[in-house]
Request: fold
Amino acid sequence: MAKTGRNERCPCGSGKKYKHCCLAKDESAALAARQERMTAAGAHAADHLPYHHPRFCADCNAEIDAAANAVIPPCQ
Reply:
């Protein structure tokens, strides 16, 4: 679907220019969708901050242990 230009007729059928009809509504919906994606991505990123506690970030601790053991073998 082609993007509607600001000065073209609105696709809603009102007969007004898009910028005077549905542009603001469409831009606010796009902004809300972007913010929702950022919030969803941020929820996962918040669990992976520099502070790694075994109860809160077991996956990260396993990755860190594996990387450390690859560089320095564990004591026998």
